[in-house]
Amino acid sequence: MSSSASATISAAGPKVAAVGPDRLPDEQCVRIYDLMLRARLLEERLITMYKQGEGFFWIGGPGEEAFNVPLGLLVDKGEGVDHDYLHLHYRSGATFLAMGADPVDSLRQMRNTATDPYSRGRNFAGHVSIRKWNVVPVTSPIEVQFAIALGTARAQRKGTGAKGITIVQGGDAGTAEGDFATSLIWSSRKGQELPLLMIVANNRYGISTPYAGQHGYDQIAERGKAFGMPTAVVNGNDPEEAYAAIQKALDYVRTERRPYLLEAMVSRLRGHSSASGANPSKDEVDCVADFEAKLESRGLLTRAEMDQRRQRYTDELAEAHQMVRGEPHPAGSSVYDYVFADKNLVGGEA
Amino acid sequence: MATMIQAIRMALHVGEDKLGVTDIFGEDVGPPLGGVFTGTQGLKTAWNTPLDERGIVGTAIGLALAGQKPVAEIQFCDYAFNTIDLLKIAGNTFWTSGGDWNVPMVLMTPVGAGIRGSVYHSHSFDATATRLPGWKIVMPSTPLDAYGLLLSAIADPNPVMFLMPKALLRMKSAPGEGIPGEPDDERQLSKMIDAPLGDRSAWQPRWPELEELYIPIGKARVARHGSDVTVLTYGRNVQMCVAAAEELASEKISVEVIDLRSLHPYDWDAIVESVRKTSRVLCVNEDTEITNFGEHLIRRIIEELFYELHAPPKLLAGGHLPGIGLADALESASVPQKDGIKAALLELARHEP
Q: Which residue of chain A comes nearest to B265, CA vs CA?
């Protein structure tokens, strides 16, 4: 990225440093910031909807945007074993947005409308399902995705010719479940290694229980070492560091067809869920605010430009919310739809 | 005449050969053992898993989502209880995703008493399985039904649980009920598809030219025709009920035995037809009696066929016991036996409204 290209984004000031190993090109920084901001504002709109009584429950990922946006930009998006399978969690909204998901669909799921494409009004906010992009349905049970991911990864293991890999993500508290150990054991069997990127988003809480009350070790990534897999801990509040760490991990898994354990230290800015009030947390790093300061100091965007974006997206989401208010809830009789499939959709039948 | 376990093995071979089965897996399922009951010997896609039932079910779900055709095994259903939430996910993924992802997987697991398996090799799973909406549940009582139901399970785009009555796995086909394509001589079949004892590293099976046969999921079979009392049963208890019915024939009591074969969806039409004819119903199965699948059948019969009945429907099931006792007398007292079935039938047949 040349400095002249960055000048087209902002003429506010000179670049402060050359692009380094953890320093992304200017345009890319602005793009990531833009997605982080939109993801954050989407969560804020969802919380507003909850507080206005338009949804029954909110759970999401304010504080994980700096990690989740780069992840969404780096995945190989598509359907089938030649693309990446994503077994993510209910704090992954920023990843879906970065992949190109329509934020209006998140509002639909929050309001449990018939138009909710992820669950037809059946499931909580953030429980996304997008088969055309290999986004496996997000579940409420914690850590089950670490057992299920083994299957898609096996379908992509070395020798199958599949080009995609499997990415699974959960939180730190969930690693106490046996399914996390299952994932470490099954993915690292000698001669049967799986192309699996395991991501632990460590926000240092399981609802109200702090990290130190659950884990006797310093970092969860340490556990991967016993299984002979590369591991890393990354500052998940810095999108550039996160981007580099995710890229490195993805490159390894894609090339070697072996597992990798990546731990991202993130914030939890609105508590566990609406059940704990969804109120702003003090004393946690806000990755959006931090990145805004960085972009400003690098002269990529001015405060006024960032405020304008924030206002524009806030207005757009408010308008979308108005629109979704007019969309119908599902009919009670539709509850019997989709109990059984009559076609093998995942097998290619249409 | 194939045994039930040979029939299962042959169905899995046809599944690999013609229906796109990609993975047959579980504890000790792959070489060298080929399953603790020999059900997966010689199959080209069979592989061994770690001793981890949650990993097995999770992997099966994931393989299915990736467009593969997995057949997973839990070595004994007694060890499936720690997978219940994953089984729920397999059953609810199509529904929660609003029709986005179906989960075409088969889960096989041996069930029931009858081999002196004591506390943890004797559980039944039918009551638990029928409480997992989104699953189809089948349970054969003959080798031919095992073959045809397993092929239907593999072809189905939904999760299907194939409950294997372990006491019947060594039973042979009745005359005229051979697997289509198997050799007439059972010793020849054994030479072709049973792994030798000892070192079997160089052994390859020679599969007969088998024909596909599909027993539709949701269709019962009349195991014995009769007109005085209807028995609704499945799995191991079918033979017992037929034997009890034969003994009652000498007392001029005509018993109709319905082998449900599919527990979900179940063949309500067949039940209605038989109950309208006999007006007396006995449900027999081995699972514990409180919140038992037979209770559901009786509830529906009472609600929909009350005025057809000439006697209160009866359930003969396993005792509400924490386990199956090992000693002969304990096991026999834990789950229904032929004499108890006979006594229950007699009582129903003689009941005066």
A: A340
Rounded CA separation B146/B154 (Å): 12
Residue B26's beta-bridge partner residues? Answer: B48, B73
CA distance A93 to A15: 31
Q: What is the pLDDT of residue B134?
A: 98
Q: What size, in residues, is chain B?
A: 353
CB contact under 8 A, B67 and A348: yes
Give the residues across from A111 on adjacent strands.
Answer: none
List alpha helices for B211-283, DSSP H: 236-249, 268-278
Contacts for B307 with CB less than 8 Å, ≥ 6 apart:
none
What's the distance, CA B180 to chain centroid?
20
Distance, in Å, from the CA atom of B163 to the CA atom of B150, rounded to the nearest integer, reads 10
Q: Is the pLDDT of residue A5 over 50?
A: no
Contacts of B157 in chain A (CB under 8 A): 341-345, 347, 349
* Min Cα–Cα distance to chain A from B83, Å: 10
What proportion of chain B, given as a percentage, has pLDDT over 70? 100
Q: Identify the three-state secondary structure at position B67.
A: coil
Nearest CA in chain B to A155: B63
- When pLDDT is averaged across residues B330-337 and rounded to a whole number, the result is 97
What value does the mean pLDDT take over residues A259-283? 93
Q: Is A48's Cβ below 8 Å from some Cβ in B? A: no
Measure the CA–CA gap between A307 and A303, rounded to whole angstroms.
6
Q: Which residue has the tokens 């702090």?
A: A210
Q: Phi then psi for B58, rounded to 5 degrees?
A: -60, -45
Neighbours of B322 (CB within 10 A): 7
Give the pLDDT confidence of B160-206 residue by residue, as tens digits: 999 999 999 999 999 999 999 999 999 999 999 999 998 999 999 99
Q: Both tokens of residue B80? A: 């499936």
Helix (H) or strand (E) run with residue B57 in it: helix B53-65
Query: pLDDT tens-digit profile of B116-172?
Result: 999 999 999 999 999 999 999 999 999 999 999 999 999 999 999 999 999 999 999
- ipTM rounded to 2 decimals: 0.96
Residue B92: CB atoms within 10 A of its CB come to 22
Nearest to A81, CA basis, from B192, B68, B253: B68
- A131, A136, A178 ranked by CB distance to B54: nearest: A178
DSSP secondary structure string, A7-69? HHH--SS--SS---TT---HHHHHHHHHHHHHHHHHHHHHHHHHHTTSSS-----TT-HHHHH
Q: Report yes or no: A337 at the B interface, CB cutoff 8 Å.
A: yes
Residue ranges with strand state E in B49-159: 70-73, 106-111, 136-138
Tokens 């067809």 belong to which residue?
Answer: A257
A227: left (phi over 0), alpha (psi -120 to 50) or beta: alpha
What is the spatial distance between Cα A59 and Cα B352, in angstroms, rounded to a whole number? Answer: 61
Q: What is the mean pLDDT of chain B?
A: 97
Q: Is the pTM of this model over 0.90?
A: yes
Interface residue A186 vs chain B (CB under 8 A): yes
DSSP letter at A238 equals -
Enumerate chain B positions whose Cβ falls within 8 A of a Cβ in A.
Answer: 20, 22-23, 49-50, 52, 54-55, 57-70, 85-86, 89, 93-104, 133-134, 136, 157-158
pLDDT > 60? residue A14: no
DSSP string, A274-293: GGGT-PPPSSS--HHHHHHH
- Cis peptide before B32, with omega less than 30 degrees from 0? yes
